[in-house]
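Continuing the series of single-chain predictions for the mutant panel. This is the parent chain; the variants come on the following pages.
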Amino acid sequence: MRRLLWDTTLEPCEYPQIIKDIFFKESVKNRLAYTSWVGKISNKHKKDLDWWLTAPPSRNPFVSEIHKYLSILSTLEKIKKKIKFLEIKLESKGIFSTIKTWSKKNKIDLRLHLKKKQIKKGNFFLIFNAIAFNIIIFFYIRLFVKKIDLKKKSLEKKIILIDVFQTSPDINRYYYGIEKKLKNKDKELFYIPTFVIQKNLFNIFRIINSIKDKNYIFKEHYLNFNDIFFSSLHFIRKKKFEKKFSRYGAWDISNLINEEISRLNDFSSACISILNFRFFKRLSENKIKISKVINWFENQAVDKGWNFGARTFYPKSEIFGYQGITHYSQYMNTIPAKYEEEAKVVPKKILTIGRAYKNLKKEFFKNADISIAPALNYQFLFKNFKKKNINNISVILSGIEALDKKMLEWVYFFLKNKKNFKLKIKPHPILPIELLLKGDLNKLRDKISILSGNFSKILINSYCVVCSGPTSATLESLASKCFVIIPVLDPCDEINLKSIGIPKNLYRFVYNKIEFSNELNKIGKRKEKNRGNNRLKKFLFEKLNEQNVKIFF
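Parent structure:
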């Protein structure tokens, strides 16, 4: 009898259908249990920042695969009586040993394969690169950038510090224009930039030079070399966490946890996080008064150090976390947990950009302090424009290679028998379309046209938008009165819209290429009355006004 191959190294949308259906359900069902268990193993390390910078407590699917593997284990329990002959491909030694022990105990004929992860850069290079980058930036700012006397400023005015990732010379693309709304002369805001490692250091220098005369405070002016050295030793200190952990139900996954702790993929972020913590420590030592601190909050490693430092050294200050992004259930890390609040690694108050997401942010912590703030990056949705009543269809790609390839496979199935008809495709900036159009997908080149430029213009000219995965495009499209088709390629694709409460007549879920084609064929027959309205837009995105902008000040 031919064995059924389950390649767990692929995205879930590529799993065999009989397994995929169960895995999707288990992945959603396990969210609360998984989060609670992370809290349990974190209990002994609440006050240790190094612990929070390891992969296991992150709940970030791009950093830790624990939730995925726990869903694999629970799926195996569900199908063990249905599938006798199963072949599983894995890339984690920890989960390999766990499943091997389980299959022997249950006398199940499993054939397991361990696939080695393709790591392009060695651990030594990752460590060296992060340390060298921090040292170079430290000395460059110390030598070539004039220090602002923040202590003097704090004696004159109430100081507001705002966390930003500075990836370009553009002055603050995250909080665009809010300083113009600051009319209180007794307050002054400063941006605290974080620089991400780039191959071209001269580009970083160019960015620094473009902002150095603006209202920016550089952490490097307050940090010392000992802080850089201390942050660099994180990869040694975290070894103390490798041990025997609490079981997850009947499963002993200690090997998996220790495997993730030892990984160094996120070492650069850990260093930045520790430097963020030390930054607030140095401000406090210099007796600099801070009125309010605002973090660009995605609850990643860099955020934990920022919030832990602010709450440790400035406990009486207002400490906010601004989530200037839409809600993605996939990213459980963006939803605060009670144990994270107790450990003070999350902000005191979280600002979300629409009423639609307020209760969703309380999934793992019912008493979380959540408030509504303007959706600064989505104000283009409130501009007056006339929606063109045309049957244009736009396919928006997510930037996740496996999901985008699957989407294009369905697109090809729809187009292959259609003459003189093209679909418009909007690739994600991080994944050029040329990298996707390979093999059979190369046949799509003559059947699609590539969209580029401003996304708002794309939405104006679209009647229907096709999108999937963790992208704000779905909600932006609904707010722009587009009908939305969502290929269900991720376990959370369904719950994202269902949990928000979007009217079902505004979108369709499709589960295979045939359903996808059928829905696209119906587009021209849909009635205008099924479009969204301004009430929905205001529910999803908070419009900026003179009153709600005050929450930042």
